[in-house]
Each structure stands twice: as C-alpha cells, then as structure tokens.
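Hi, here's the filled form for the chain we discussed.

Project: internal
Contact: R.S.
Residues: 135
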Amino acid sequence: MKTFSGEYERTVDNKGRVVLPPPIRDLIGKNGFVSQGEDGCLALWTQEEFESQAQKRLDQESDGNKDARLKNRFWAASAFPIEIDSQGRIQLQSRHRTFAEIELGQEIVVLGAMNRAEIWNSIRLQDLRNSLDDD
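And the returned structure, exactly as it came back:
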C-alpha cells in the first residue's frame, strides 16, 4: 500500500482545478479516482487502492447488509476517474465541490490520510480539528 502523508495548502482556480502537491501526485501517478470522503472531504485514491476499497465494500455487502449496500451505492456513484495534467492539476467536478463546500478561488487543504489523500475546505477541516480538542 502506498502511504499518503503531509498537509499542503492550495487554491482552487477559477476553472475548478487544483494543483496537487508533488508527493501526493507522485503516489497517485497519472490516473486515480476521486470520491466523496468521510466527514465532508473529497478522497483521492490510486487506481489500485480504489479497486481494493471497492472489493472490501462488496465483501461487506455480501452478507445482505442493507446499510453497507446503501453506502456502497452512493460511494460508487460519487467516484470518478481523474487524470493529472502536465501541470500537476486535477479538475474538481462541481458536484464534488458542492459536497465538500469548496468554492472557486478558495483556499483548501490537501492532506495525506494513509491509504488516500483528502481535499478539504480549510474551515471545515479546522472545525473538525477543534472538535477533537473538545473531547
């Protein structure tokens, strides 16, 4: 498994593109996947890890688990292939930006989260950090 780590500040350009940090883009390679992530972020997956996650989700569903089936349906529907362009950018679809509350021109955070990278609205990420401090 490729391990994603680090935290990087970026800006979404006026066309909905974001330049991925070199350590993140090097791990993803030329192609990967983006999906809705947990807690309101976007998840970036390598091709291999996306396929592994899909298989794990199918295995959970094989027991007739209705909750797993519903979660899998929406996870798969939110997932799209990405291609990193020659300038290291990926295009964020409007449906993904809406889900993650990311506006054009907004500062965002790209962070490593072990088996994936995540793209966060910086305010939402700070709120999540603050909620951990409260516990």
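Let me know if anything looks off before we file it.
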